[in-house]
Amino acid sequence: FCNAAHYFLPQAWQRLFQNHPQIAIKLQWISLIESVVEHLRDGDWRRPLLLCTSATRWGKVYAHPLQANGIDLIEPRDALHLTLMDCIYQGVKASNRDLTCLLGERFFVELLNTQPDPDCIIAGCSEIPCLLEWLQGKTTGAVGEFLSALDVINPVQLALNHAAETLHPMAAMELSL
After folding, report:
1. Domain encompassing residue 116
2. CA nearest 62: which of 73, 70, 47?
């Protein structure tokens, strides 16, 4: 469920259809990105904060589709984004909860001092929900208030919900287990 992989998925999907149509017609691709765009478009969110890896950011995996739908995406400044990358790779992926919380607190304090006010957070990396959960258990003050006041849009959960609604009933039951 890598968000950054969606940069390559359209081309890979097209090649699969061209080279192996008998396999491609049996598969269903549920886009994390399209799930988020649809969810934001159907809701009241117009200024989401995207928390993601550099690959997702540089590939504009969310930026292009959201802008095309009139949604004003907020991204952390470049220097601040590096702190987020450390949270993801040195913190969450390394299972270092203390470092995750230390860097996460630093990230959000700086974000609150320098960035516009978002109306929700897009968890544009599968490690972001873990980061936010760990932080909410430890942080207080302005960061805690900020995190508890915003909805977190989890693309993986949205895609799983979509799959459960649209797939064959047995497949949907397996997803809910």
Report:
1. 4-176
2. 73
Which one, of 167, 96, 93, lies nearest residue 128 by Cα? Answer: 93
Q: How many domains does the chain have?
A: 1
Residue 131 contacts residue 92 (beta carbons within 8 Å): yes
Q: Which positions ≥6 away from 57 have C-beta within 8 Å?
A: 50, 63, 75, 81
Collapse the DSSP code of 115 into the 3-class scheme (helix H, G, I; strand E, B; otherwise coil) and give the result. Answer: coil
- Condensed to tens digits (0 to 9), the pLDDT of residues 82-132 reads 999 999 999 999 999 999 999 999 999 999 999 878 999 999 999 999 999
* Axis crossing angle, helix 155-166 with helix 32-42, rounded to the nearest 10: 90
Q: What is the CATH number of the domain that holds 29?
A: 3.40.50.1860
